[in-house]
Amino acid sequence: MTVFQHQSRKVTMQHSFSLTGITAICFGLLIAGCTPTAEIETGMDREGGRSSQPATTGNREQVMSGLGVNANVHSWRDGELRPAIDKISALGDITWRVVIDNGDWESVRNPAAPPAIDWNYYTPIYETPELVDLWETIAYINTKPGQEVMLNVMGPVSQWMGGDHIGADMEDEWVRTMASMAGYGRTVKNLDFTLLAPLNEPDLNGIEGPNVGPEQYVRLLHKLAVALDDLGLTDMRLVGPDTALAENAMDGYFRELNTDAVVMDRLAYFAIHSYSGETSDARQVLAQSGSGLDFWVTEFSGPCPGCDGGAPNPADWTSASATALLALDLIQQGATGLLHYDAWDGYYNHHGSNGYWGLLAYDKANGNYSPRKNYFALQQLTRFVPRGSVRVPMDSGDARIKAVAFEDPVSGRFTVFGVNTSDDVIPARMAIPDIAGPLDLSSYITNATHDMEKTTGASVSSGRIEATIQPQTIFTLSGIPTKG
């Protein structure tokens, strides 16, 4: 996350990393008629389990694989964060970009600087309060069904390693730091995570993460992939480059990544940040490369002026509607993952201030977390679009209605997520050519006066939906076909 708004805001290399010793450590250590949100249907109730394969038959768009949030672990405070995690996990199948900040937990260089990971050196580091916050946060998320964890490192590295950059002679040290963290979390703490995003905004200023150019970035990821394999973490996939600017990702980082087969094979998702809707044709570039990669937007949000520098979040309808419209824009450009910045308010070391971007506001006086309007805006999407849902073609029938549609191949759930951007009530006739119906749809709305409230439903018939959409309103229409 930056201190300003991005785009309108803000030949295998050999390493000898061994798990020898870590095994020993493991053993030795609206209106009348609206109903409350408590009655909301869930998109997570699906027969047959979770689908891991894209549904590519027919006239289909992208498969959604990562709707979720960024989450700062330094708000753990001996478990005070548990109710906040409960609220976020209730949003649906959530992907968590779990953030540790800064990347400087190895404050003193190991004087021996051995080529293999020295677990006698690293174990005390990974039991310090800062790292315990990380382990405890992930452990609690792991208790919630349908949740997926991606570990991300923000902020500068240790000064001896370069601080705002990674010295060329310190690359192996950085690799040991990242690999040892992943190995300790997985092997000693027995945590469930298989996605690692080791750098944040390497194209920026050295504050959000060390400044790492495309060539060095690929070199580091290659070494890290080898190190993870040496630790037995062959299922640990990488996510990146997490650039602040989409054009930097496509013009520089992807071009360089595409020259290294080891790294490309290890990448789970190509990741960018976008607060303006700019993706620099990421979907088209990735498709033309033949890489098979989807792209995630691992930071996105509507405007929140001053929220990095300690200014309170306006928590208003304007911000929430902008977030919903940005999500629609990014999905329409082909993003398969969207991670909202941020899950909750909290202190960021690399900013040196509290951040107030949270879906959940934090009350320091009583330690409570309460949802802002943006929470309900995101819930309108995530609650009914489980992981593996496929975007299907649709026409809203009115330029004032921005909308996308999805079908879950496991349950058959069909969902429309959209925004009426006008000040008028619109009697909409939406065309859904791939969904013939008949199908009854529940309706939920969020606007200036309502938060994810149930209203009069609609139905699909002959590939068409007729529904009355309230002005300046985020809406969701969703239903599961009756089995008979």
Automatic annotation (TrEMBL):
Pfam families attached to this UniProt entry: Glyco_hydro_cc
Asl1-like glycosyl hydrolase catalytic domain: residues covered: 167-301
SUPFAM superfamilies reported for this sequence: (Trans)glycosidases
InterPro entries listed in its UniProt record: 6GAL/EXGAL, Asl1_glyco_hydro_catalytic, GH, Glyco_hydro_b
UniProt GO molecular function: hydrolase activity, hydrolyzing O-glycosyl compounds
Protein's name in the database: Asl1-like glycosyl hydrolase catalytic domain-containing protein
Organism: Pseudarthrobacter siccitolerans
